[in-house]
Amino acid sequence: MRWAAIVWLSAVLGASAAAAALNSSQRVRAFAALPDWTGLWQTEAARAFNSLSGKAAGNEYEAINRYVQLVGPAPYTEAWGKKLRADLATPAAAAGASNAKLCTYGFPIIMDVFQLFQAVVTPEETLFVFDDGEVRHIYTDGRRHPAKDDLWPTAMGDSVGHWQGDTLIVDTVARTAGSLGIGPNTLSAQAHFTERVRRLDKNDLEDQMTIEDPTAFTHPWKLTIHYTRAADLDRMLPWDCANDRNPVVNGKISVAPP
Predict the structure, then answer these.
(1) Which of the ends of the chain has fewer CB neighbours closer than 10 A, N or C?
(2) Stretch 226-253: mean pLDDT, rounded?
């Protein structure tokens, strides 16, 4: 009996080891099939902003209005546009716009502003890790959005995706309704986002974003955001919003010493 038990245990352990090896081998193949998005990526807005001089202290709106697409004209319905204009005309809105300094952005504006990000691509999910500490989780292992009763709105929303060749198709819902954080635009709780993210070549990444909002828009809002590899950096430099290392000195952006 004892020897039978030993033989049985050995067989079980051998089978478990074989299964583990198979799973490991499958995982290696799964990683090998994924595109290589290694590196740090930045928007065209980030590249322009980093070379911009004369920015007023604590106010990024001039640069944002020039380079960030998501603060541009959106296809609002007449009713939503009228309400938005009325809200923006209040003294509180004017004061907020002139003294804006955001430490976090949320989705979708985080994809279009000045934050560097690193793409981490795994078989289960793709993560966009931003230098201000924000992270987007895009689940690609077949899971769906949570059920309605469990779907809680957040600044980043809930994102699931799948691969079509080397293109990541992303579906995002449950983004907190309201302002994008910067600029005049707002979205309703029904906003739905579809993205097609792909690497164009070694140093260029692209996000084709479509925003559908049946409450606020007359038709889908489509834009293409372009990213370039940050070739002059060899690591992520966390952005400390409370202790900004880029103060304005004599009307020009400077770099403060450590």
Answers:
(1) C
(2) 77
